[in-house]
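Hi R.,

Here's the chain you asked about this morning:
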Amino acid sequence: MTLALALALALALALALTLALALALALALSRFYARSDGMVTYRAEELAQSGRMLTIFALYVSYTADTSLVLAHFGKIRALAEWLLYRYCTGWG
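And here is the predicted structure, written out as tokens:
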């Protein structure tokens, strides 16, 4: 096996593991932290973490073209986005 092939295989494995981790994180966020009204079930509302959740979902779809995760949790994701938009529009963020 050449060095180039070994590096390509290592990179492919790293990418596959990264996507699996991103999927697990997005599922955990949507199942255990995001409520149906857009709030999170954690210590308190945190704008940065809520925005990061939306970014994780967007990046997952961008990298994998798999929209089933977002469609399965669309209600929670939309409520979270609407809550962040409300905070922005009212000047509370």
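One quick note: Residues 2 and 16 are 21 Å apart (CA to CA).

Cheers,
M.
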